[in-house]
Structure to design on (555 residues):
C-alpha cells in the first residue's frame, strides 16, 4: 500500500531523526563523555559511578524521589474529592467548575510557582498574615525549602490527578452505586466499598503520572528551591548549562529517563481505562 | 436515609471548596501582586499601581512574548500538518509495524521533556548544527513534543466518526477526494482544532525543553522569566505571568465557542460508539 506508506513515512522519518537519534546520542554521551562536552573513543561507566558514588549526588536523586512520592500522594488525595464532585454533581455550574479546575493547565509551571513565591517569601502573604495575627515575632523563612517544592508541584500537577480520576469515574457504571444504595448501604459505605475500589486504577495512574512528571520538572524547584534543595532537574541544568559537564548531565538524564519510564509503565499496567486519558505528561 | 445521606455530600462540598481555593488562590494572589504598589512582592498589596503592567508590556518583555507566540503558532501548524495524516494511517490503514509507530508517536509524551531537551541540544552540536540552537532548534523540539497531541486528538475523532457517513457519500457518487474534503475533514475538524490548541498551549507554556534550546537572543517568555528570576523577584514578573496565562486562556475560550475542545481533555476513546 504505497499511499499509507507515504502517510506514515514522513512523520516517522521526522521522529526518527529529531527524537530517536538524539535519544540514542544521549545514551552514548552518558558513557563516552568523560569531561567537558566532547565524546572520546573508550566507553566508561565513570559518570554513573560518580553520581551513585557521591553522597551529594545520591542525596539529589533521593530528594527527587521523596519529592515525587509526596507530590503523587498529595495530588491524588486532593484531586479525588474534586474529581468525584465534578463527575457526580448535577449543578448547572458543572461545566464552569470543570473548566475552572482544569484552567490552570493553560499556565506554565512558572505562573503557578510564582504565586507560591509571593505567598511564601520572607515578606510574603503568609508571613504578613502571621505577623498581623501576632502568631510570630519575626518573619519565618519558608524559602528555599523542599516542602515548598512539594507544595508548588502538588499545585501544578493537581489538574492531571483530577483528569485521571475523572476518567476512571466516568468509565464506572453508575448503576453499581445505585444498586449498593438500594440494598441499604449508606452513601459513605457505598463510596468506600464500591466507588473507591472500582476507581483505584485511576488513582494509581494519577499517582504515578504526577510522580513521573514531578521528577522531571525544572521550573518549580528552581523558583521555590535553592542551594541545598537541588533536584535531578535543576542538577541536570547545572551540568549542561553552567558546569558544561555533558557527561554527568547525560548520565543523570538517563537515570531520570529510566525512573520516569518505570513509573509510567506501572501507571499503564495499573491504569485500566484511565491510561486512555488523552493528555499526559508535559 | 435522606437526611443522614446528605451529610457526606456537605463534607464533600467543603473539601471541594478547600481544594479549589488551594488551586486558584495562588493564581489570584499573583494577579493581586501584579497591581502591588510596593517593589517587594508582598501581600496584601501596599497601594495600587499599574507600573508593573506598563513594564510587562514594554519591549523588554513583549519581545520574548511575541517570540513565544510565533513559536507556538508555528509549532501548532506543523504538528497538525504532520500529525493529521499519521493519525489517519494509524486509525484507517493496516500496515506492518503499526505498534512500533504508535510507540514512537507516544515517546515524546512519555519520556521527560527535559531529557528530550538535553538530547536535542547535544545532538545538534554533535552534527555541527550548534547554530540552530535558538529559534530553529526550539521549533524542532516543540514539534517533537507537541506531535502526540495532534495525533491523539485526531485519532479520537476519527474513531468516534460513524463509518457509514463516508460509505453513504461514496454510494451517492462522491469520489474519494470529495468524500475526504466534504465529509471526513469537517467531521474530524474538532479533533484537528483541539490538537492544534493543545500543541499551541503546550509549546507556549513549555519550560523543560526550551531551557536547553534557547539562545540569549532567541528565547521564549518562560525562559526569559527564569533568567530574570536568577537576579531577584519583582512584581513585573507577576504581570508577565498573568499575561502569559491570559493569552492561552482567551485563545482556548474563543476556540471552545466554535469547537468543544474541552471534551478532548478527558475523552475516553473506548466509550465513543
Amino acid at each position: 500500500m504505497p499511499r499509507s506508506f507515504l502517510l506514515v513515512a514522513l512523520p516517522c522519518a521526522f521522529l526518527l531523526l529529531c527524537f530517536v537519534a538524539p535519544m540514542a546520542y544521549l545514551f552514548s554521551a552518558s558513557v563516552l563523555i568523560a569531561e567537558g562536552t566532547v565524546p572520546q573513543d573508550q566507553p566508561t561507566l565513570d559518570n554513573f559511578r560518580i553520581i551513585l558514588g557521591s553522597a551529594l549526588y545520591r542525596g539529589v536523586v533521593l530528594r527527587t524521589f521523596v519529592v515525587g512520592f509526596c507530590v503523587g500522594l498529595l495530588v491524588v488525595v486532593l484531586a479525588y474529592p474534586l474529581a468525584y464532585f465534578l463527575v457526580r454533581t448535577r449543578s448547572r455550574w458543572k461545566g464552569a467548575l470543570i473548566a475552572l479546575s482544569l484552567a490552570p493547565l493553560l499556565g506554565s509551571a512558572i505562573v503557578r510557582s510564582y504565586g507560591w513565591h509571593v505567598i511564601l517569601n520572607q515578606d510574603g502573604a503568609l508571613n504578613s498574615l502571621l505577623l498581623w495575627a501576632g502568631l510570630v515575632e519575626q518573619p519565618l523563612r519558608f524559602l528555599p525549602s523542599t516542602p515548598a517544592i512539594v507544595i508548588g508541584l502538588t499545585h501544578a500537577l493537581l489538574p492531571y490527578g483530577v483528569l485521571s480520576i475523572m476518567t476512571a469515574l466516568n468509565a464506572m457504571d453508575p448503576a453499581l452505586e445505585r444498586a449498593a444504595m438500594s440494598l441499604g448501604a449508606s452513601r459513605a459505605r457505598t463510596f468506600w466499598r464500591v466507588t473507591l475500589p472500582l476507581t483505584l486504577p485511576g488513582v494509581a495512574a494519577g499517582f504515578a503520572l504526577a510522580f513521573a512528571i514531578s521528577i522531571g520538572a525544572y521550573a518549580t524547584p528552581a523558583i521555590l528551591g535553592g542551594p541545598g534543595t537541588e533536584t535531578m532537574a535543576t542538577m541536570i541544568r547545572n551540568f549542561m548549562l553552567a558546569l558544561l559537564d555533558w557527561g554527568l548531565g547525560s548520565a543523570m538524564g538517563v537515570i531520570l529517563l529510566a525512573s520516569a519510564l518505570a513509573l509510567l509503565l506501572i501507571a499503564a499496567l495499573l491504569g485500566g481505562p484511565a491510561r486512555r486519558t488523552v493528555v499526559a505528561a508535559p | 436515609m435522606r437526611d443522614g445521606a446528605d451529610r457526606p455530600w456537605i463534607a464533600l462540598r467543603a473539601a471541594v471548596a478547600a481544594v479549589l481555593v488551594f488551586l486558584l488562590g495562588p493564581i489570584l494572589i499573583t494577579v493581586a501582586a501584579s497591581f502591588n504598589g510596593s517593589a517587594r512582592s508582598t501581600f496584601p498589596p501596599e497601594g495600587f499601581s499599574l507600573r508593573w503592567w506598563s513594564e510587562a508590556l514594554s519591549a523588554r518583555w513583549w519581545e520574548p512574548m511575541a517570540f513565544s507566540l510565533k513559536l507556538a503558532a508555528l509549532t501548532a501548524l506543523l504538528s497538525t500538518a504532520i500529525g493529521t495524516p499519521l493519525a489517519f494511517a494509524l486509525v484507517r490503514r493496516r500496515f506492518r509495524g503499526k505498534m512500533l509507530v504508535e510507540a514512537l508517536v507516544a515517546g515524546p509524551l512519555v519520556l521527560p521533556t527535559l531529557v528530550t531537551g538535553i538530547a536535542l541540544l547535544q545532538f545538534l552540536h554533535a552534527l555541527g548544527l550548534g547554530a540552530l540552537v535558538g529559534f530553529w532548534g526550539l521549533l524542532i523540539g516543540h514539534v517533537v513534543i507537541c506531535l502526540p497531541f495532534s495525533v491523539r486528538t485526531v485519532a479520537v475523532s476519527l474513531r468516534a466518526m460513524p463509518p457509514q457517513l463516508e460509505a453513504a457519500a461514496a454510494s451517492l457518487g462522491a469520489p474519494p477526494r470529495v468524500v475526504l474534503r466534504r465529509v471526513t475533514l469537517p467531521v474530524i475538524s474538532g479533533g484537528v482544532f483541539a490538537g492544534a490548541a493543545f500543541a499551541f498551549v503546550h509549546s507556549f507554556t513549555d519550560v523543560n525543553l526550551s531551557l536547553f534550546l534557547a539562545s540569549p537572543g532567541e528565547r521564549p517568555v518562560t525562559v526569559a522569566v527564569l533568567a530574570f528570576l536568577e537576579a531577584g523577584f519583582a512584581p513585573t514578573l507577576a504581570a508577565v505571568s498573568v499575561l502569559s496565562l491570559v493569552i492561552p486562556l482567551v485563545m482556548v475560550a474563543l476556540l471552545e465557542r466554535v469547537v468543544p475542545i474541552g471534551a478532548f481533555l478527558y475523552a475516553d476513546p473506548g466509550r465513543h460508539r
In short: Chain A touches chain B through 98 residues (CB under 8 Å). Residues 273-282 of chain A have pLDDT under 50 and may be disordered.
